[in-house]
Specification:
By secondary structure, the protein is of the alpha+beta class. The protein folds into 3 domains: 1-69, no CATH class; 76-192, no CATH class; 194-244 and 283-306, no CATH class. Helices cover 48% and strands 14% of the residues. A hairpin with a 2-residue loop joins strand 1 (35-36) and strand 2 (39-40). Helix 3 (42-55) crosses helix 4, helix 5 packs parallel to helix 8 and helix 12 packs antiparallel against helix 14 (286-305). The model has no long low-confidence stretch (mean pLDDT 84).
Length: 306
């Protein structure tokens, strides 16, 4: 362990807090994932430093390779590889094929220093990413090769070097963050603004067909799931409005000049007409139809992607 790491671990909490407060004043030099309310959060910075000390790395290396996502630390693929190699284990990353040809593979092998006769292996391809419903995500569209390598590294690390990671075993991308080509976090998923004001758009539609077209737009932007409740609620409103409009008009008031007559029922009830017999007992509502069509489209997309 380096002298700097030893000094940090030996420092008391007050000294560490002064160190963290000083570094937090660096502003934009602190990764945005460690900010709260528009400025660096000293508590998050301290958590990153403590996590780095646990892994045996310098505080500044931890600052650039460890992020806090929903209260949990995530580690970049590069730093994960460094921690494993620093422990004396052999980690090898190779690729073959190409994305364009459809045969790209990222292959990562890990051979432990204390068990040289066995090699762990992880392979990631775009076909596997598609099955995991990852291929359409922004990170994977922009950097498919890098994402395959990062996934293979973290997978083999969890299988063969859990003791090196001390529980810090997921990358920011695996925890839902937006990352760059190096796998370092750019923004958390919560920080990504929606592409459109879906609540306002959903509230403005007046027909089920318009709502379906808007749903397709939201699905194309990968933002339908997060707003599904809005769409279903509006579909229900439109369905109820349609049912109200279809209700028969009220019967006219009886004419006082018409003498009441006794209605004599037929001996046998009239047989239902062919059209009436074919009519279903429970007619599907607009909301049920919308949900059924939405489910069918999702199944169709899943089978196509799978």
């Amino acid at each position: 362990m380096s002298k700097e790491i030893t000094q940090y671990e030996a420092a008391g909490l007050d000294e560490k807090m002064r160190y963290v407060q000083t570094l937090s004043s660096a502003g934009d030099l602190i990764p945005k994932g460690l900010w709260t309310a528009g400025k660096p959060n000293p508590g998050k910075v301290l958590l990153v430093f403590e996590t780095g000390a646990m892994l045996g790395i310098h505080p500044i290396a931890a600052l650039s390779g460890i992020d806090i996502i929903e209260g949990k630390p995530a580690i970049s693929p590069g730093l994960m590889s460094g921690v494993i190699r620093k422990a004396g284990h052999k980690l090898r990353v190779t690729t073959r094929g190409s994305i364009k040809a459809g045969d790209f593979e990222a292959v990562v092998t890990l051979t432990r220093a204390d068990d040289p006769d066995f090699t762990y292996e992880a392979i990631w391809t775009m076909e596997r990413a598609t099955r995991a419903k990852l291929a359409h995500k922004d990170n994977w569209v922009k950097y498919p090769e890098a994402m395959c390598k990062a996934r293979a590294i973290s997978e083999v690390a969890r299988e063969g070097a859990e003791d090196c990671l001390m529980g810090v075993k997921y990358t920011p991308e695996e925890m839902g963050a937006l990352v760059n080509e190096s796998g370092e976090m750019v923004a958390t998923s919560e920080a990504i603004e929606p592409s459109e004001d879906w609540a306002a758009l959903v509230g403005a539609v007046t027909t089920t067909d318009d709502l379906k077209a808007l749903r397709d737009r939201a699905q194309a932007a990968d933002e339908y799931t997060a707003n599904r409740a809005l769409f279903l609620a509006r579909a229900g409103e439109l369905g109820r409005a349609g049912e109200a409009a279809a209700e028969p008009a009220a019967e006219p008031a009886p004419d006082d000049n018409v003498i009441d007559a006794e209605i004599v029922p037929d001996d046998e009830p009239a047989a239902p007409t062919e059209a009436a017999a074919a009519e279903p007992e429970d007619e599907e509502t607009e909301l049920q139809r919308y949900e059924r069509e939405t489910a069918a489209e999702f199944e169709s997309q899943a089978s196509t992607n799978g």
